[in-house]
Amino acid sequence: MQGDPLAEGVELMLVGMGSVFAFLLILLFATKALGAVAQRFAGRSQAVAGVGDGPSLEEAAAIAAALHRHRR
């Protein structure tokens, strides 16, 4: 014997919305954890690689010349 279709629909809706909400919470905490790990190791990689200095004048001139030639 089948139950009330409206009650079954509400139950299905609540289960579906609950599972989506749980997945989004897990995704939120995983993203925050990954951000914390990235912040922890960001200082080390920048110090080793020298990131943030930018290209030298010669490199910037070569890049500008390559872009100009590519666009022509």
Description:
With 72 residues, the chain is mainly alpha-helical. 83% of the residues lie in helices and 0% in strands. It is built from two helices and no strands. The longest helix has 45 residues, at 5-49. The protein starts with a helix and ends with a helix. The mean pLDDT is 87.
Radius of gyration in whole Å, from Cα? 27 Å
User: What gap, in angstroms, lies between the N and C termini?
Assistant: 75 Å
N-to-C SSE series?
HH
| Count of distinct strands | 0
Mean pLDDT: 87
Helix content: over 70%
Contiguous helical run count: 2
Unreliable residue runs: none
Overall 3D form: elongated
Main sheet summary: none
Which percent band covers the strand fraction? Answer: under 5%
Judged by helices, strands and strand pairing, the structural class is mainly alpha
Features of the shown structure:
single chain; 72 residues; mainly alpha; 2 helices; elongated
Write the layout of secondary structure elements.
Blueprint: H1 5-49, H2 57-71
In short:
The chain is an all-alpha fold.
